[in-house]
Automatic annotation (TrEMBL):
It comes from Streptomyces endophyticus. It comes from the Bacteria. This is Uncharacterized protein.
Amino acid sequence: MDAGLAALLGTAIGGALGDGGVLGAAWLTGRLQMSAQHTQWRLEGRREVYGVLLSAAVAYLEGAATASAAVSMETAADDG
């Protein structure tokens, strides 16, 4: 095999492997970013739902406390 042909063949193989590595790394980076964005989207949705749930629970507990205080005041007035 001629030295020039061997050099050309080595360059072609090295270039192909290098390009394959670059493409593989780019593909993997894209997949990881997509996965991270999907996870972030899911967490934001959960955060919003839990916020609504906590707001409703606080409103319920405040209403229950107000009703309990009103019943206690009526009972105290009836006993007095």
